[in-house]
Write a structure and sequence with these properties.
By secondary structure, the chain is an alpha/beta fold. The protein has 12 helices and 18 strands. The strands form 3 sheets. Strands 3, 5, 6, 9, 10, 17 and 18 form a 7-stranded mixed sheet that branches. It has a 6-stranded parallel sheet with strand order 13-12-11-14-15-16, with helices on both faces. Helix 7 links the parallel strand 12 and strand 13. Helix 5 packs across helix 6 and helix 8 packs parallel to helix 9. The structure holds zinc ion (2 copies).
């Protein structure tokens, strides 16, 4: 079939909407008609070359839509199902999956990095020329073909834009609190970096019954929004990790149990670490540059039993966590729709990214609904 998709030709280039060929789903694959796609900082990393991806490529990895066709052997979803898309189709068989760490599945990583589906080939092309997938999903498009394992069925009354964000930002933030940290009621939390992922973590902390929640950011507007979403205290970045951490410790009554770091900047990671109380943990979600190094004051690690926890995709088990996250949203306990501040058409994907980078948007969503349904 022919689809419109935003194609990126090279790092630093512009994403242009073009007509592509999308081949039908093969064994174990699904064709999804996309209705919404979140715009994520990871997409920008591919645009500007921070994350090298093969070109030409169709970006986007926070999609949701309706199953339009299935390949042979697909059992998880049926035609007509509403689905949220997960970029980690765990295999269930590798060493990590067997250790119940499906978000760290080692089988999917290689084809993902090559911009291919699980069998090492692409369903996207342009006049016979190969076009690459991105994180299996490529949701800056009207439709996509992807592994069955990327498709998580969702209730039909959940809005597609919210479901799309659950596929990455929301699960990454909420999961860091619920799954990586395992927050218990009353525990104190700091959120360092109040973008879409950080504020998702904040909503997760509120829903899980956190005690004092302290929001940290460089911009007043984001701190004000964090307060609206449930932060008890706000701390503007104080110029250094040490000064910022001191302010967080003061605001939290002596340090936090979990400091969730969502920027990927080493100075913010250090601030998170120094914000913790005894037995506290810095939970590092933000993706740093490949050459980044994080120096920590070593003595407090044994003396205070301070910890550093890495968290990718919120340690999420998509089949379990997407459903329960969306159920809490439906009951009004997780106001996830408040994270969506901007909507753009497919032609304006880059404008959405620019709004995100400028700190204007918390989350911008590409509206991909078929024209007659808008
Ligand atoms: Zn993402
Ligand atoms: Zn696996």
């Amino acid at each position: 079939m022919r689809i419109n998709a935003a194609v990126l030709e090279r790092a630093g280039g512009a994403q242009e909407v073009q007509e592509l060929d999308l081949a039908p789903p093969q064994a174990g694959e699904v064709l999804v008609r996309l209705h919404a796609s979140g715009i994520c900082h990871s997409d920008q990393n591919a645009v500007d070359g921070t994350d090298p991806v093969p070109f030409p490529s169709v970006l986007g990895h926070e999609g949701a839509g309706v199953v339009e066709a299935i390949g042979p052997g697909v059992r998880r979803v049926a035609v007509g199902d509403h689905v949220a898309l997960s970029w980690m189709p765990s295999c269930g068989e590798c060493a990590e999956c067997l250790r119940e760490l499906p978000h760290l599945c080692s089988t999917a990583r290689v084809p993902m990095g090559l911009g291919m589906l699980l069998d090492g080939t692409s369903r996207l092309s342009r006049d016979g020329e190969l076009v690459h997938h991105y994180s299996f999903i490529s949701s800056f498009a009207e439709a996509c073909v992807l592994p069955e394992g990327c498709c998580v069925p969702i209730p039909a009354d959940v809005p597609f834009d919210v479901a799309g964000l659950v596929g990455c930002a929301i699960s990454t933030g909420i999961g860091a609190v619920w799954r990586t940290a395992g927050l218990r009621p009353g525990e104190r939390v700091a959120i360092v970096g109040c973008g879409g992922v950080g504020l998702s973590a904040l909503l997760g902390a509120v829903a899980a019954g956190a005690g004092t929640i302290v929001a940290v950011d460089t911009t007043e507007r984001k701190l004000a929004f964090a307060s609206e979403l449930g932060a008890d205290e706000t701390v503007p970045w104080a110029g250094s990790p040490e000064a910022t951490a001191e302010a967080v410790r003061a605001a939290s009554g002596g340090g936090v149990d979990y400091a969730i770091e969502a920027t990927g900047r080493p100075e913010a990671m250090l601030a998170a670490f120094l914000s913790t109380r005894a037995r506290g943990a810095a939970v590092l979600i933000g993706i740093p540059r490949p050459d980044a190094v994080l120096p920590l004051p070593a003595l407090s690690i044994p003396r205070m039993e301070r910890r550093v926890l890495g968290s990718i995709y919120g340690s999420t088990y998509p089949e379990r966590d997407f459903a329960l996250t969306l159920e809490l949203y439906r009951r009004g306990r997780l106001p996830l729709d408040r994270l969506i501040t901007h909507r753009v058409p497919l032609e304006q994907v880059q404008r959405g990214l620019d709004l995100l980078l400028a700190g204007e948007a918390i989350r911008a969503v590409v509206d991909l609904r078929p024209k007659e349904r808008r």
